[in-house]
């Protein structure tokens, strides 16, 4: 792995390489936007792209044909529209068929119900795009009506799970159907649960039981997932879930992995009861020979590690053992959901609590697991960044400074972009190990990452630099940093609000300047800036400045300092005056 | 020896204020001596077909790139064909923001892939400005 290169999706050029997390996200999103623009062009003008001269023909590079072929009112036309996912067209065609009196077969009606429940009687993405285009193309329509429609379709596209409206198309068709079989009921229940109408789903389930139909595994999964929305108290939720499980056993439906995952998800919302029950759920799973997936472990960990107080990290070790032994394939929509991140979060939080060395070993093991096989596919860019930043914080807390610096150099511009918290942790670790000469390079990184305007980081940096005296070259480097920071404060304007100086920051800067012997700069800082922000420099600053003035042999400066101190009414002005008289040879006028 | 009336791919000597890149400054008889090829494919080898199609594709690609990256091309694009893959190496000036260059890159790659039914990879390199070799 090349530590200086960015992710392979970016172009390999110093100008085009992202320097911080925000830039990385921006560039990857803009590349994706470019691809979408190209796809839009291809969809608009398919006539230029559909010549097949490649042998063999590559279907994924040809434009898609989405317009239905068969015209006229017939069942085949309905089937085709359902296949192409055109919700509104298929509903209209169905109504036309029913009005014309032609019987529509049960399978077709069922597939229509499937389509409607999947999209929740909203529109599929295609139709929304066309609606928006039609809005744009009809200038004759009333402008306000147009805007209202566009806004609504935009809002509809933003809320991906839309609400289940009363008496919408799916329910209407369901009621109208002359005969319904188990499949219709199942579809309706799953659609209702998906789009939030859990109570109606439960009623429909009762209806189905009355008609003595059998539900299938997916319906039961949906019902179990809907349990938290049906009951409030923990015990009632668990009882209802057990009722569903008993029904499942009665109807001889085999539970599968998703059933158990839904059960665990429900147990997550059951508080303390969840802890005791989840272990028995896992044992059931093993008895039935179903291998737990990543989502299972995720639910388990969140049940056990919720809240601040932590019983034992026993279970996380077992989980990690299991995870290391097997390789995972995605089986559940929740799998991609931050398994590794939540894992690391838990081990990080446990690391903070007990400060136990074995937790850093946990982190290393987790790292190895992530690099093995296909596991990297579960983390996308944002989650990768979060994972690495948590890992790095843990490292800074627990490990020696050499290891920390090695990881930092390897990971920093290529694999992850440090967050401000990471930089703070790094500075503290450097402080603990007394390695403060690395600070100028950290400042360079900070500038590159765009953190140079964050007050907390600047404070930390300046205070670390100015705390003690250091050998001279390091002092020079520090003074250069201080000058950079001063320049940053100076340049206000553009779109950002100007950076405010704080008293302590100014004091540190003055200190650093005076230690190096740059009297002019230090004096400028003292006079102008302190007056500007109405703060008083500390005694330490005064003393340092005095020492600097003595070193460079400028008695005028010393006198100016004394006058300043006197004007500000500081108690140390007397002391400074006496020092001045003693240590400098002053002419009569100056005296 | 070449006739003095040849005018192919040569930049004529002028007043001395015209910056000319290395590529432009050398005449075609320097190819394989001081210059390389701008388009690499196997169509011109003995027994291979398709040279004319490749030439047509090259012409289209150069015009396409000239239009997609308006005013940013610092030098002629180099096209390399490896099996089915088309690698387009473009030298750009830093006129647009990096996010916009990524956008144009993604757009060009997808569009060209769909147009030519083969995977197209775009390799961009940025320079501060056009690099002059001499002034003619």
From TrEMBL, chain A:
GO terms under cellular component: mitochondrion; ribonucleoprotein complex; ribosome
> What Gene3D superfamilies has UniProt attached to this entry?
Tetratricopeptide repeat domain
GO MF terms held by the record: ribosomal small subunit binding; rRNA binding
Keywords from the named record: Mitochondrion, Repeat, Ribonucleoprotein, Ribosomal protein, RNA-binding, rRNA-binding, Transit peptide, Translation regulation
Q: Name one GO biological process term.
A: mitochondrial translation
> According to its UniProt record, where is this protein mainly located?
mitochondrion
Q: Where in the cell is it found?
A: Mitochondrion
In this chain, the stretch annotated as Disordered covers 127-170
* InterPro entries reported for this sequence: PPR_rpt, PTCD3, Rib_mS39_PPR, TPR-like_helical_dom_sf
Q: Enumerate the PPR repeat regions by residue range.
A: 181-215
The keyword Repeat appears for this protein = yes
Q: Which domain of life is it from?
A: Eukaryota
Q: Name one Pfam family in it.
A: PPR_3
Asked if the Swiss-Prot or TrEMBL record annotates the protein with the keyword NADP, the reply is no
The family line of this record is: Belongs to the mitochondrion-specific ribosomal protein mS39 family.
Q: What is this protein called?
A: Small ribosomal subunit protein mS39
Question: Which species is this record about?
Answer: Rissa tridactyla (Black-legged kittiwake)
From TrEMBL, chain B:
Give its localization: Mitochondrion
Where does the chain cross the membrane? none
Q: Which InterPro entries match?
A: Ribosomal_uS3m
Q: Which UniProt keywords apply?
A: Mitochondrion, Ribonucleoprotein, Ribosomal protein, Transit peptide
Q: Which GO terms describe its cellular component?
A: mitochondrion; ribonucleoprotein complex; ribosome
A single BP term in Gene Ontology: translation
Main location group: mitochondrion
Keyword Ribosomal protein appears in the UniProt entry: yes
Task: Report the family membership.
Answer: Belongs to the universal ribosomal protein uS3 family.
Return the protein name. RT24 protein
Task: Tell me the organism.
Answer: Rissa tridactyla
Gene that produces this protein: Mrps24
């Amino acid at each position: 792995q090349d530590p200086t290169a960015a992710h392979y999706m970016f172009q390999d050029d110093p100008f085009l390489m992202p320097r911080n997390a925000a830039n990385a996200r921006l560039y990857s999103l803009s590349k994706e936007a470019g691809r979408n623009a190209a796809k839009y062009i291809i969809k608009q003008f398919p006539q230029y792209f559909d010549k097949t001269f490649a042998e063999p023909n590559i279907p994924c590079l040809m434009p898609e044909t989405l317009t239905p072929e068969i015209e006229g009112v017939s069942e085949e036309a309905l089937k085709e529209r359902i296949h192409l996912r055109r919700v509104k067209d298929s509903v209209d065609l169905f109504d036309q068929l029913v009005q014309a009196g032609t019987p529509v077969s049960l399978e077709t009606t069922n597939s229509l119900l499937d389509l409607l429940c999947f999209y929740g009687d909203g529109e599929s993405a295609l139709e929304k795009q066309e609606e928006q285009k039609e809005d744009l193309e009809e200038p004759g329509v009333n402008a306000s009506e147009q805007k209202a429609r566009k806004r609504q379709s935009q809002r509809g596209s933003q809320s991906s799970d839309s609400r289940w409206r009363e008496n919408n198309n799916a329910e209407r068709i369901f009621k109208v159907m002359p005969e319904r079989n188990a499949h219709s009921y199942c579809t309706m229940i799953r659609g209702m649960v998906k789009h939030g109408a859990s109570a109606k789903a439960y009623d429909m389930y009762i209806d189905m039981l009355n008609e003595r139909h059998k539900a299938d595994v997916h319906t039961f999964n949906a019902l179990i997932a809907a349990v938290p929305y049906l009951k409030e108290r923990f015990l009632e939720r668990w009882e209802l879930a057990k009722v569903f499980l008993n029904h499942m056993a009665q109807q001889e439906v085999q539970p599968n992995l998703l059933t158990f995952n839904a059960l665990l998800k429900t147990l997550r919302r059951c508080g303390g009861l969840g802890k005791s029950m989840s272990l028995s759920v896992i044992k059931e799973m093993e008895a039935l020979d179903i291998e737990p997936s990543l989502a299972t472990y995720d639910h388990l960990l969140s049940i056990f590690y919720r809240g601040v107080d932590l019983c034992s990290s026993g279970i996380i070790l077992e989980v990690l053992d299991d995870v290391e032994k097997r390789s995972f394939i995605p089986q559940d929509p929740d799998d991609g959901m931050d398994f590794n991140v939540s894992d690391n979060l838990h081990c990080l939080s446990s690391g903070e609590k007990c400060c136990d060395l074995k937790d850093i070993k946990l982190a290393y093991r987790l790292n190895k697991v992530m690099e093995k096989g296909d596991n990297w596919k579960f983390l996308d860019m944002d989650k990768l960044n979060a994972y690495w930043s948590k890992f790095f914080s843990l490292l800074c807390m627990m490990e020696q400074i050499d290891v920390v610096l090695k990881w930092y150099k390897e990971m920093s511009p290529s694999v992850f972009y440090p967050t401000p918290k990471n930089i703070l942790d790094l500075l503290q670790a450097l402080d603990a190990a007394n390695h403060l000469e690395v600070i100028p390079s950290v400042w360079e990184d900070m500038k590159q990452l765009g953190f140079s305007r964050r007050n907390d980081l600047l404070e930390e940096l300046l205070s670390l630099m100015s705390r003690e005296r250091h050998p001279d070259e390091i002092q020079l480097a520090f003074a250069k940093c201080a000058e950079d920071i001063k320049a940053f404060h100076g340049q206000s304007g553009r779109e950002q609000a100007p950076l405010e100086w704080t008293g302590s920051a100014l004091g540190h800067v003055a200190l650093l300047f005076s230690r190096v012997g740059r009297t002019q700069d230090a004096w400028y800082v003292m006079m102008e800036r302190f007056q500007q922000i109405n703060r008083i420099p500390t005694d330490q600053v005064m003393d340092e400045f005095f020492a600097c003035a003595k070193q460079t042999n400028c008695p005028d400066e010393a006198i100016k300092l004394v006058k300043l101190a006197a004007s500000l009414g500081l108690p140390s002005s007397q002391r400074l005056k006496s020092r001045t008289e003693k240590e400098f040879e002053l002419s009569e006028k100056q005296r | 020896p070449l006739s003095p009336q040849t005018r192919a791919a040569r930049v004529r000597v002028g007043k001395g204020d015209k910056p000319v890149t290395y590529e432009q400054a050398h005449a075609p008889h320097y190819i394989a001596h001081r210059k390389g090829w701008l388009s690499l494919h196997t169509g011109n080898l003995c027994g291979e077909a398709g040279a004319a199609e490749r030439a047509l594709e090259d012409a289209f690609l150069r015009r396409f790139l000239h239009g997609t990256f308006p005013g940013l091309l610092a030098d002629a694009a180099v096209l390399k064909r490896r099996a089915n893959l088309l690698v387009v190496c473009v030298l750009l000036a830093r006129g647009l923001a990096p996010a916009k260059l990524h956008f144009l890159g993604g757009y060009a790659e997808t569009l060209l892939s769909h147009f030519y039914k083969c995977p197209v990879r775009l390799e961009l390199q940025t320079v501060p400005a056009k690099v002059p070799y001499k002034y003619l």
